[in-house]
Amino acid sequence: MKNLIKIAIVEDNSDIQELLLDIFTTQKNFSVTGVFDNKTSALKNLPLSKPDIVLMDIGLPDGSGLECIKELKPRFPEIEFMVYTTFEDDKTVFEALEAGASSYILKRSKPEFIISAVKDLYTGGSPMNPDIARILVNRLFNNKKPNGASVLTQREHEIMKLLAEGNLYKEIAERLEISINTLKAHCYNIYQKLHVNNKTEAIIKVFGRN
């Protein structure tokens, strides 16, 4: 990966701050542009650090990280938000996605998974821990008639299912035996048909929520 990925961290636990800083400062493809330990500071100063990706804790001392995402994402759509939390219930997962997060990973994740997830998010993926993806899939596919599925081709619906499961672009391309560029073209067509801007909106519009 040639581009330097700029990362901001919103986390109030100093030990976890140090862990994340250690993970990313030892990698040549990453640059940490800001660390914020509360919602107020993040809302005010995070945009000034101009990150590509924000690792966002949910439980902050002065509010919810999801509220932070909900306020910042519409103002700075170019920033990708990765929820980094201990919460793994389906209600919180959906609230995070609807707030504007494109990724959801757990704090018990190994460093190599965190690094891989950030890289995948940077290149257009929606990485999640397998447990989170399973929660999402079970909730999404509980609906018998997916909303918006009728406008998609069989291949496009297959791609949406794989995206909802949390598969990486590379994994989907390999499974479908197509190139990543072809996969991205399919995704672009899906978003155009559904009148959405990203994978999260597409997943919710196609499969809905209970």
Which short descriptors sum up this protein?
single chain, 210 residues, alpha/beta, Rossmann fold, Arc Repressor Mutant, subunit A, 2 domains, 5-stranded parallel beta sheet, two-stranded antiparallel sheet, 10 helices, 15% strand, globular
Percent range for β-strand residues = 5-15%
CATH superfamily of the largest domain: Response regulator
CATH topology of the largest domain: Rossmann fold
* Shape summary: globular
Q: What is the number of strand segments?
A: 7
Helical proportion, percent range:
40-55%
For the record, the CATH class of the largest domain is Alpha Beta
Span between termini: 39 Å
Alpha-beta content class: alpha/beta
Report the biggest beta sheet as strand number plus sense, adding barrel if it closes: 5 strands, parallel
- Element order, helices and strands? EHEHEEEHEHEHHHHHH
**What's the CATH architecture name of the largest domain?**
3-Layer(aba) Sandwich
